[in-house]
Amino acid sequence: MLKKRKNDPVYNREMLLEEFEQHAIQHGLDVDVFSDGPLNSRIAIIGEGPGETEIRKGSPFVGASGTLLWDSLRRYNVHRVNSYVTNVVKRQISLSRKGNERNVVHRDELDQWIGLCRWELEQLKDVRIIFVLGNYALETVTGNVGIMNWRGSVLQRKLPNGEMGWIVCTINPAYAQRELKLEPIFQQDCYKLDMVNRGTFKEYKIEHIINPSYHDAMDFVRSLRDSSETPAFDIETINSETACIGLSNDPHLAMCINWRDGMRNRYTTQEEADILLAIQDLCDSHRVIAQNGQFDAYWVRLKNWLSISVGFDTLLAHHTLYPQLPHNLAFLTSQYTTHPFYKDEGKRWKEGDDIDTYWRYNCKDAAITKAVQKREQKELEQQGLADFFHNHVMRAAPHLTSATIHGVKVDLVHKERVAEAVGIEVNRHLEEVYRIIHELLPEEGEEYRPNIGSWQQMQLLYFKKLGLQGRGFSTDENNRIHMMKHPATSLMAKDLLTRIGLWAEENKFLGTYANARTGDDGRMRCEYKQFGVSKAPGRLSSGGLLTGEGLNLQNQPERAKEMYEADEGCVFGYFDLSQAEARVVAVRARIEKWKEQFEQARLDGKYDCHRALAAEMFKVPYDQVPLKDFDADNKPTIRYTSKRCRHGLNYRMERFRLSEVTGLPYYEAARAFALYHSITPELEEWWKQAEKDFRTRREVFNAFGRRHKVIQRIDEEALKSIVAFYPQSTIGDKITRVWYQSEEDDKWPMDARVCLDVHDNLICLASPKTIKTALKILKGYAEEPILIQDAWHNKAEPLIIPAECKISYPVTYEEGKHRFRPSVGKEKGTHRWGFLKGVEL
Fold first, then answer.
1. What is the pTM of this model?
2. How far is residue 479's CA from residue 162's CA, in Å, rounded to a whole number?
3. What class, spelled out in words, does domain 13-198 have in CATH?
């Protein structure tokens, strides 16, 4: 057992190091880098372990991560000479999975190092602040784990030396250097260290009102209703039911209305109904504040029949401000308040803690959401984004929530048929994989069929049998890309990697699809996320609900669309913006021939821009280009190839990826790649200008005012994202605008609603009598001009994107032939998403 050193006036750093080394030898540990700095320091900085530079120079934090650390702290007058600096582990370590095995620290060894580091800190009698950097340091000083949760937290507690002091938590600066988007987070945490050091840090306190009586709950809800302050609203769930509702219009006061305690219901049925009606009255009087409010809105509507309107979503506000940063409440708490990490308290009651912990947790969520909203509103106003946020982002939110609540009706019998069809497709790709493997390795024989789902077997295939070269020996998609790009990889091996990618994609869909659960009412639902596409903010993504049902409805293959039925007495309507992103690129990149072709197609309705592109790429007359994407043998035509080039190569898609998405052999994709770029040199000029502009401004706005801002050092990945941002984000926001503009239009039919967003198109439901009215309104808003600015900021011009409309027609299923056909005569069919035909309005 290590003993604490008594106060000793002659005890110096050399004595400490000598004693530490003796203890380390006793525990069988090798010390490569000792601590540094005076023993009488007020601040101790604790890292995880030394890197190569530290080993070479024999001192902690003298490499690249040390440069970031000291550059960040110098502005706050914290220097190496006045800080005690050490690491938990004092030999070279690797925090990367790809690191050398001898540099990995296993649990038994780590426990020994943690014990030694705690002893070391006990000797520092003057330390009052400890700055912990990374997981090992966090566990050593606090006993907590998970630095990404705890970073940004400031804790006041007894330190290892027995004195009351402060602990400031942040990430390892080496991690911030590897993941550049984390560097601003590290800088933010350094500022909190400065506040503690200057004595200006104030603990965040919240008054929790839990287990309220019926009268107290009613009085509190009514007081919120009558207040001019907008309340924050938050729910917690247990066993897929609403366990409590947290309410707060004061960042330091909140009430949790919990329906049960640990043993029984807390209210009578009538009292519970009264409270819910009072909460509904509150929500009718205020558009509430919430974190990820769409979840709260659809949950209480489906579970409790409460209808709430979220007027300020703190998650969406932060996404509007800083799309690259995390947006969860734990992160927002650290950014906008001084409250330490608390989100694990939501799970403690399941581990035997008092359930009152859960109710206090709900109070914290509500109060902190209110606090975050106040800070975010100020930032939105200061950065000129308040109008965009309130009049676009939040205006769209209730429409997306409504689509989630209603869902889409599912033919459950046909759902099983689709799953079976996908399974057949997976097996087809699998057999093609084995065919190519047997061509590449004839000596292995036909019986050689490695399990594609086994990384061990695929590692053997790739690197031992085929001799492929990637970056390391991973078998994941990223390394398959590196193998594909390697000049030594043969064309047939590239075809194999492409086919494996297709199999993986289909197999993943099969697993996701087979597990997709409809609601008890037989409807499929998805949650539309306005923050879901990190590289193209503005585009919606979708996924299953947190209730466990539903799935991504935006990426359904054609065969799956057959299972979605229109509601009784309704039909599907559809509009699609024709080649929307490519039209924006034409203006943005100043491709004059494209602009002329797109305008000709819009005006006469017959001219085909994809055929025109194919004619130019493959040097054939326009009239000789096929009208369809696939020929009679289901082989892709040059129209299909040129179409896919335009969809992907505008945004720097590479040859191997073009091969994957088109299904073309690699050599054909590579030829198409070269032809496409040879006839559109404007694209590279656009990319260069976009990068130059972005390096200067560090931000770019789309046509509707959405901002893409980089607050980190700019790297290649950041530069790639800005090329696609303007077209993709503009069209994403355009589609969302059309959605809420149409449903808010006075002429919108009462029986109509938008039920699906599929990126460049919307699907609506209405009666046969009103469907054309609904589509006319959608088309009208869709074809309103967008003012597009070219990348050189020399010219802005209005762009009209034509909208093509379709309506579903009734079909019947022929059991023996396993196919749908249009219903005829008196035969009653059903309207399905997968069966639409064009309509002139």
1. 0.88
2. 50
3. alpha beta
